[in-house]
Design a protein that fits this description.
By secondary structure, this protein is mainly β. Helix content is 12%, strand content 33%.
């Protein structure tokens, strides 16, 4: 699961994902769960994209309060069609792109937690797959945007399978090691506007040759 990533600045996001200039609240470069972060979602028309700042940690429609007692910053892609917190966003096509220059994952190969940093090998920002929701406070009427980052099983991936603490109770091929899902620039419109079946075709682990990774200093 990803719990820390570095976001590009607003101008870089607007330039790379072809979004018109928008005045959004600023956000910290390093983003942690429940902190504000930027994401790209469909705009008013199919030809438009909107840059939104929301909470990293999706607030589901049924939540009584925006302060959740459980974690929703990551969502298993295999469960989004059935899990209550994400089902509505997935079935209604509320998919988004989460811009990231890099993200961090822990490796336990040495017997202790060593953080690794993951960048794209081509030097471009990641466009990570996510879901979003706008939650309305029934008392104040305030609308709070939020998002979650999708993950996928990476037990067979030569790099991502090395991340995260192993479960001694499970065999090596059933650890359910997780990876983020990268949406390539040419697939952004399909991810944002396509059908559910179209979106499912994009749910895959980034190829190892697309990743530049190393332990953090």
């Amino acid at each position: 699961m990803c719990n820390r990533y570095v976001s590009p600045q607003q101008a870089a996001i607007e330039r790379f994902w072809h979004i018109g200039r928008q005045n959004q609240p600023q956000w910290a470069r390093e983003i942690f769960p429940r902190a504000p972060g930027p994401f790209v979602r469909p705009g008013a028309s199919a030809a438009e994209r909107e840059l939104v700042v929301g909470q990293w940690g999706l607030i589901p429609w049924f939540a009584k309060t925006a302060k959740l007692t459980y974690s929703t910053n990551n969502a298993r892609s295999e469960e989004v069609a059935t899990k209550a917190s994400y089902k509505q966003s997935w079935l209604q096509g509320r998919r988004c792109i989460i811009p990231a220059w890099s993200f961090d994952e822990p490796s336990w190969e040495t017997g202790r937690n060593v953080w690794w940093n993951f960048r794209r090998a081509d030097g471009q920002p990641w466009g990570l797959a996510g879901l979003w929701n706008d939650w309305t406070d029934k008392e104040s009427g305030e609308v709070i945007a939020s998002y979650t980052m999708l993950t996928i099983n990476a037990d067979q991936h030569p790099l991502m399978s090395r991340m995260h603490r192993p479960d001694p109770k499970l065999p090596p091929d059933r650890q359910d090691k997780r990876s983020v899902i990268a949406i390539e620039l040419g697939d952004v419109d399909v991810w944002l506007h396509g059908s559910i079946d179209d979106a499912k075709e994009l749910l895959r682990v980034p190829p190892v040759e697309a990743i530049e990774a190393a332990p953090k200093d």
